[in-house]
């Protein structure tokens, strides 16, 4: 079942109607798509269901006291290559924005039947003029009935908070769940490959033992999902430096 | 179930540095899916790379090739993975990722 086309049409219509006036548009929509459902003779996987989940957030603030051209000029004049390593000292180009927003959305499906689920989401927002709107947050929603094992994780930063972090991708990444590429270099690849291969060959009990040994705290969902546990442990490898990676190797003498 | 990750590069890396870091990430059991320019609200631009965690390191290694954004370059027998915009040395650049 797809629900979004009507919402998109409504949003486009709303934008078209109000584009000439002052106003703020905020819209978000979600769609759940049933990709496939299969009933098997195999008792180990009696039912296999694949679900897709899309969620979109759009925020549009028509310019108040400014034009799109002025905003574009302000952005083009900004200097991205000064300041910290990510190249920014202050969000000067966005100081006139009414609303700014970052958001992410993810879904984990773990239903009583055997199934799989994935979800991704992105959000963007731009605007000019004056206005208010601040906040950061994380949210978890477990829906009822048959969806009691569906977990929805949403993170967002809006308004002043979004402006504050917009200069610092690493901070934005920490809020939104984005992660830095890695601090390791090509010289670390052989050891990283070796450790990752060991982790990816482990069973759930071994993963738990390893996370305790390396003092890596796994998320609640990773404790229930070996593949996610492997991802989180190897994330720690990727986010370490060369010396720390050697330290992880020392904690895995059987690898 | 596999997991998708978005990882952010440092914008002043060279193409070679970015390529090396992508191969480091892939060595940990992730596969490069997409490259895109990440424009934060404000003045920061960097490169966002989307990986899928599969638990198996893909081979051969990724090669990044810059091009003019119009005509795809000769990939030298490699297979293209994706094309996208990167921020290389602080400047926008069209890039093909191939292996």
Shape of chain B: globular
Assembly state here? heterodimer
Supply the helix-strand structural class of chain A: alpha+beta
Mean pLDDT of chain A: 62
Give the overall shape of chain A: flat
Radius of gyration of chain A: 23 Å
Note the run of SSEs of chain B as H and E: EHEEEEE
Strand residue content of chain B: over 45%
Through-space gap between termini of chain A: 47 Å
SSE map:
The complex is a heterodimer of chains A (255) and B (99).
Chain A: H1 4-18, E1 25-39, E2 47-61, H2 68-77, E3 101-109, E4 116-127, E5 134-142, E6 150-158, H3 159-166, H4 169-176, E7 179-180, H5 189-200, H6 204-213, H7 220-224, H8 226-238, H9 242-250
Helix pairs in contact in A: 5-8
Chain B: E1 3-8, H1 15-27, E2 30-39, E3 45-53, E4 63-67, E5 80-88, E6 91-98
Antiparallel strand pairs in B: 1-3, 2-3, 4-6, 5-6
List its traits.
heterodimer, A: 255 residues, alpha+beta, 28% strand, B: 99 residues, mainly beta, three-stranded antiparallel β-sheet
Walkthrough of the structure:
The complex is a heterodimer of chains A (255) and B (99). With 255 residues, chain A is an alpha+beta fold. Chain A is built from nine helices and seven strands. Chain A has helices at 4-18, 68-77, 159-166, 169-176, 189-200, 204-213, 220-224, 226-238, 242-250; strands spanning 25-39, 47-61, 101-109, 116-127, 134-142, 150-158, 179-180. A six-stranded mixed sheet of chain A has the order 1-2-4-3-6-5. In chain A, strand 1 (25-39) and strand 2 form a beta hairpin. Chain A is flat, with a radius of gyration of 23 Å. Chain A starts with a helix and ends in a 5-residue tail after the last helix. Chain B is mainly beta and 99 residues long. Chain B has one helix at residues 15-27, and strands spanning 3-8, 30-39, 45-53, 63-67, 80-88, 91-98. Chain B has a three-stranded antiparallel sheet, with helices on one face. The mean pLDDT of chain B is 88. Strand 7 (179-180) of chain A pairs parallel with strand 1 of chain B, so a sheet runs across the interface.
């Amino acid at each position: 079942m797809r629900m979004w086309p009507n919402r998109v049409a409504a949003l486009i219509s709303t934008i078209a109607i109000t584009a000439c006036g002052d106003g703020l548009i905020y819209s978000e929509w979600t769609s759940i798509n049933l990709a496939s459902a299969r009933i098997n003779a195999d008792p180990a996987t009696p039912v296999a269901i694949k679900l897709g989940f899309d969620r979109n957030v759009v925020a549009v603030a028509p310019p108040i006291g400014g034009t799109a051209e002025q905003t574009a000029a302000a952005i083009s004049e900004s200097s991205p290559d000064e300041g910290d390593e990510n190249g920014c000292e202050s969000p000067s180009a966005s100081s006139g924005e009414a609303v700014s927003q970052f958001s992410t959305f993810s879904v984990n499906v773990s239903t009583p039947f055997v199934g799989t689920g994935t979800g991704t989401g992105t959000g963007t927002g731009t605007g000019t003029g004056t206005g208010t709107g601040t906040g950061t947050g994380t949210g978890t929603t477990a829906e009822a009935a048959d969806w009691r094992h569906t977990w929805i994780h949403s993170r967002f930063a809006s308004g002043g908070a979004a402006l504050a972090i917009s200069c610092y991708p690493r901070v934005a990444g920490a809020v939104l769940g984005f992660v830095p590429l890695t601090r390791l270099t090509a010289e670390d690849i052989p050891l990283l490959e070796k450790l990752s291969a060991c982790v990816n060959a482990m069973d759930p009990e071994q993963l738990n033992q390893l996370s305790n040994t390396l003092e890596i705290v796994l998320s609640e969902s990773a404790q229930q999902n070996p593949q996610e546990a492997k991802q989180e442990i190897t994330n720690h490898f990727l986010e370490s430096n060369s010396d720390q990676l050697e330290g992880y190797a020392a904690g895995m003498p059987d690898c | 179930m596999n997991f998708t990750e978005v990882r952010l590069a440092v914008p002043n890396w060279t193409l070679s540095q970015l390529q090396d870091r992508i191969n480091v990430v892939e060595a940990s059991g992730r596969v490069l899916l997409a490259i895109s320019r990440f424009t934060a609200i404000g003045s920061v631009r960097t490169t966002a790379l989307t990986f899928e965690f599969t638990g198996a390191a893909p081979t051969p290694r990724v090669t990044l090739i810059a091009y003019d954004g119009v005509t795809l370059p000769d990939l030298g027998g490699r297979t293209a993975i994706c094309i996208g915009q990167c921020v290389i040395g602080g400047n926008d650049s069209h890039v093909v990722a191939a292996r």
